[in-house]
Amino acid sequence: MLKRLTKIVLLTLLFGYITIGVLLYIFQDKLLYHPTPNIKIDYPQLVLHRNGAKVVVHVLNKGHKNAILYFGGNGESMAQSADYIAQQFPEFTCYLMDYRGYGSSTGKPSQKAIFSDALALYDRVKKKHERISVGGRSLGTGVAVYVAAQRDVSKLALITPYDSIVDVAQGRYPMYPVSLLLKDTYDSLSFVSQIKSKTFIILAQNDKVIPRQNSQRLIDAFKKEQLKVDMIKNRGHHNISNDKRYYKIMQDFIGKG
């Protein structure tokens, strides 16, 4: 009787383990991407037509010689961020890309598509500007790192970055072979050696989304003379930009381009 009961319990646990693993695999896109709604704003748009998808980029402060490409978090609305970013960087033309499926962009988000779209954006605007700096927040740091590794970037700013999405997810689901389940890895660590630009990393002291060790592994991969790191105290992953130091330290780093 005891053996039979033990067998039933073990089979139940195994079934539960497999079921959760299957669900994680099936719904991984919904866990990683949180598309934002289409909000109309009074800024011109640049539209990239990419393999049947329409990728919309909001253009702030047109006409400046230097530019900033900004890639947001997995649930960050570029339309809602636009006014504040335009005010904080008035001497730069800023490009905010709605990932596929976000805002008024069409298609489905994926690492392959977003990386490709980000490079296409850089290549599209490069001739208009003397220098291009790149910034990313949370998920967008993986995109920014990739662009900086593939193109000539003046400055690179990373807000609450990670080493890879695989490592972050493995920490959350230690019982599962996450590297075998995830399709989109955003392996920033693997691109660091290709980055030549000065880089600034901003951390949130109370970040509960990106564990400190994941950010630290990325920090450790950069050359010390290439990197500057700062921490916003008493702020978390989602409210870091509410601190008055947030934009000031980025402005000081970006400088004139």
Describe this structure in words.
The protein is globular. The model has no long low-confidence stretch (mean pLDDT 93). α4 (111-125) packs across α5 (139-150). It has 257 residues and is α/β, with parallel strands linked by helices. The chain has helices at residues 2-26, 28-32, 78-88, 111-125, 139-150, 165-172, 178-181, 212-221, 244-254; strands at 45-50, 53-60, 66-71, 93-97, 131-137, 155-159, 198-204, 227-232. It is built from nine helices and eight strands. A hairpin with a 2-residue loop joins β1 and β2 (53-60). The chain has a single domain (33-254), classed as Alpha/Beta hydrolase fold, catalytic domain (Rossmann fold), CATH 3.40.50.1820. Strands 1-2-4-3-5-6-7-8 form an eight-stranded mixed sheet, sandwiched between helices.
Task: Give the SSE layout.
Layout (H helix, E strand, L loop, with lengths): L1 H25 L1 H5 L12 E6 L2 E8 L5 E6 L6 H11 L4 E5 L13 H15 L5 E7 L1 H12 L4 E5 L5 H8 L5 H4 L16 E7 L7 H10 L5 E6 L11 H11 L3
Parallel strand pairs: 3-4, 3-5, 5-6, 6-7, 7-8
Antiparallel strand pairs: 1-2, 2-4
How many domains in all? 1
Strand content is 15-25%
The radius of gyration is 20 Å
Q: What is the H level of CATH, i.e. the homologous superfamily?
A: Alpha/Beta hydrolase fold, catalytic domain
Order of the strands making up the biggest sheet: 1-2-4-3-5-6-7-8
Helix content class: 25-40%
